[in-house]
Amino acid sequence: xxxxxxxxxxxxxxxxxxxxxxxxxxxTVVPPVEIAKTVAPYAVNRTKLPGQIIHIAFDGxxxxxxxxxxxxxxxxxxxxxxxxxxxxxxxxxxLATLYDPPRRKPGRSDVGFGGTKEEVxxxxxxxxxxxxxxxxxxxxxxxxxxxxxFSYAEWTDELAQFHTFLTxxxxxxxxxxxxxxxxxxxxxxxxxxxxxxxxxxxxxxxALADAGYKYDTSQVLKLTTTPDYQExxxxxxxxxxxxxxxxxxxxxxxxxxxxDDGRVEGSGANMLNAYQNHLRIAQDLGQAPIQIGHHFSRxxxxxxxxxxxxxxxxxxxxxxxxxxxxxxRYKLETR
Length: 335
Hints:
There is one protein chain. 38% of the residues lie in helices and 13% in strands. By secondary structure, the protein is an alpha/beta fold. It has one domain: Alpha-Beta Barrel (TIM Barrel), CATH 3.20.20.370. The chain is globular.
C-alpha cells in the first residue's frame, strides 16, 4: 500500500517515465452477449425507486475540453452523470513514478498521466464543478490494466493508490487547495467503481468491499426488472447487451466503435436507434433499469456524443423516466 512518505521521497528524487497520453488508446471491449453467472441477491427497497431508471456514465477524466463540453450540456439539460475517474490523471507528468502499478515498473500507465501542473489544476477544478452541480464522482482505478488475474493484495494496493492520488492531489502537485473541506466531501462521496476493461474477479470485489465501495458497474448481465445482484457485499449495477442494425454489442460507445469497424456514416443514428429500442424493451419488461457507458473521447467524428445527447434530450425530461446517478439509486434502494 502506497504511503505519503514514499510519495514525498519520490517527488524529491525520481524522474517520470513516458506513457500513453490519452485514455482512449486502450478502451473497453467485451463480448456482446450477456455473461451467464449466478450473482447473490441483496435487499432492495423498491418503493423508493422513481420509475424507469437510466444511468449515463463516462469513463476516464483526461480531456479538459470534454469535461467542459459534457458539464455544459448537462447543465443545459438538467441531467446528472456519473464520472468514473482515473487516479493517474491527477498526477502531473513529473510525478509519474509515484504510481507503482501491479506487475509493472513504476511510472507505467496505459492511459497516461495528468499533463502539466496547470492542466492538473484545471482538471481538479472540473471535478469540483461536477461535484457542485450534482454529478457523481466514482473510481476507475489508475493505469487501466486488465485485472482479471490480479490478487486481492494487488487490487487492494491499486485502490489505495487511487485514494491517495485523489486525497492528496493538491499536496502532491503543489497546488493551493481553495477549499479543503469541500475536497474532503468530494473524496468521501465516492462509493462506486468501474473496472478498467470491465476486467473483474472475486478478489476485486473483496478488495472493493474492504475499501468501502458500495457498488460496481463492471459486469454485463441480462436485462431484468429485478437486477438485485451483489458480490462480497458490493452491489452490481450491470451493463447490458443490445441489438443494432449492424449487429449485437453492449451499451458502451467503444463497443459500437468496434462494431462499426470504420463506418462513420450512419454510426450515430445506429447508436441512437439502438438505445431507443433498448429503452422500449426495458419499459415493456416493466421498467428495467438501464445504463449507458461512454468515454472521454469523441470517436467516429463525435457521432456517438451526438447520439447520447439526442437520447438524453428525447428521454430524460419525460414523466416516469429518471436519468440519475448510481449513488442516488443506491441510496434509494438501501434506505
